[in-house]
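user: can you give me the structure for this one chain? tokens are fine.
assistant: on it. calling the predictor now.
[tool input]
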Amino acid sequence: MQINNLKLVNFRSYSHQYFDFNPRLNIIIGKNGIGKTNLVEAIYTLAIAKSFRTNNDCLLIKKDEKMALIKAEIQDKNVNEFKLSIENTGKSVLINDTKISRLSEYISQINVILFNPSDLKIIKDTPSIRRKMLNIEISQLDFSYLKYLQDYNKVLKQRNYYLKNKDNILNDDDFLMILTKQLINLGLIINQKRQNFITEINKYVSSLYYQITGLTSFNVKYVSEFNEKDQHDLLFLYEESLKRDVLFKKTHMGIHHDDLDFVVNNDSLKDFGSEGQQKNAIISFKLAELEVFYHLKQTYPILIFDDLFSELDKEKLNNILKLLNNKVQTFITTTEIDKINASLLNNCKIFNIRDKNVIDVEEVN
């Protein structure tokens, strides 16, 4: 999969800009604060219909403008035109000028894997951040996953509202039992999809970790109260948790508490790993995702390295680029091109950006 070109209208710092991309390597150079990340953010936002930098879509619209447009030609088995328009009242997405009404039917169409400095803190961060990463990546692979997740969150919200507003809830409360069974059924489906994804990740991640660090025995564990349980087991656990749920007026059991554990030699990297080990683990995880996407969809996703030279040493990032071996369309934002080995700059396109405008485009063959 690759993005052939991109048109931006009133997106962040860009009033009106058009880009043609190299099918392999694209390097975006410029000083900090001039729009390098805005460019790759647009690619990511077109794919996911959501920015990786903000939850407020209105911030993506250029100041004093009413709307923003991202338009691109995406090449996979076929070539299709994608458009995402953003207004203060909401956003809309189109494929070949056909409006897509449901987000769950859209976000698996363009696949993108992002590396940025905040990703390198995922292991140390809260479980919700790891679940968010998991949800985004699985949604790109499985269009039904997002729908199940949306339905689960809707039922969870109903159950919590009921717990907050219903007096004297008893074990035989019929409506509460209906909601609980719906949570369990949806949770079991989501749990299985998450387990399947982590199983696929573990087919590749240890080998990649070894290639980066020289160390072995790395794997990712999916931690969930739903693991290896059926509906009967879970009903019993929800009944056991009911008094606590009533006391605190929220649902304590469920896949909304799931987590990932990154493990080297049976030790959790969150508790025992150095910062370097944690960064290497996340890098290995992301590179494993590339292989999972290819295995399941027979095409590699678009890959974005945003400002990673600020977090990783030159040798490590160049080793990562060597692992890719020109098989993935890659975008790199950086302040200094000399941090990229000259041997890796064959067949690439370099975009020099100054004052929020592209001033020079160089083809390297």
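assistant: here you go. The chain is about 40% helix and 25% strand. The first strand starts at residue 2 and ends at 11.
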